[in-house]
User: Fold this.
Amino acid sequence: MIFGGENAESYYDEGLTASMKGDLELAIECFEKALKLDRRLTSASHQLAKCVLRMGHVGRAVDILIRVVREKPQLIPPRLDLGGALLALGRLEEAQRIFSEVLAAEPANARALMGMGQVAFALGNWAGAMDFAKQSIANSGPSFPSLFLLGRAARLSGDAALANSTLEEAAELIDKSLEGASDQPESYFLRGEVKFALENFSEALDYYRSATDRAKPRQVYSAFGGNFTQLDLLARQGLCHQRLWNKERAREIGEEILSKDPTHEVARSLIEPDEERAR
Assistant:
């Protein structure tokens, strides 16, 4: 019996605690038990979807979030999470519709603006991505996701000066935001992401290696809305080797990852000739 007794609220609280600690399997188990005891506990369904999403089961997360949004259409956070999950599945039109609905209700919602920017980025609309990122910054101040999106879109649009200054600002934000946790995997991962976006693949590789060394197997890490595992960090190393023309090492890493997770898409791209699939 968990602390607080065998009731939906106690399992929900236990699930939240486990989720914050990164024990997603226990969190999912607790939220599922809470829902068995009280199907009307929509907050448990929402948290279950967020944990499932962090575990990489995006399709299941979408199914749960659709039900949550249907039951509680007035709630904005589940709608934003649904938009993000649809975006992760490549269902861009649906994601765009969700984010547009949020912006109709809350025009300054930073997550919705970022969602629209990410859709634009996925469609190759660099100008649109930059515009939404700038709107997000104007309304809510600079954040790592908004600066990172703006910097990447600026680089791809040919504005090297804006890209460099924005990505460097994003790197400075990492140091401030993760103060006290500077030796954790998240810190090194984010620094690697910035260096990768700057096309400094040697330094990015060093950061990804440091993050991999500090990450625990099977644990899911979260940073600024993004999730990654030790295998994802290894895959990022492979991408760096690929960009540095160390094709054989990239292939070795891809094969190592696929031996543990045959569904890992980035790992598959490391052993296939079409490098652009990895972007």
Summary: Residues 160-177 form the longest helix (18 residues). The chain is about 70% helix and 0% strand. The beta strands are 221-223, 226-228. Residues 80 and 112 are 7 Å apart (CA to CA).
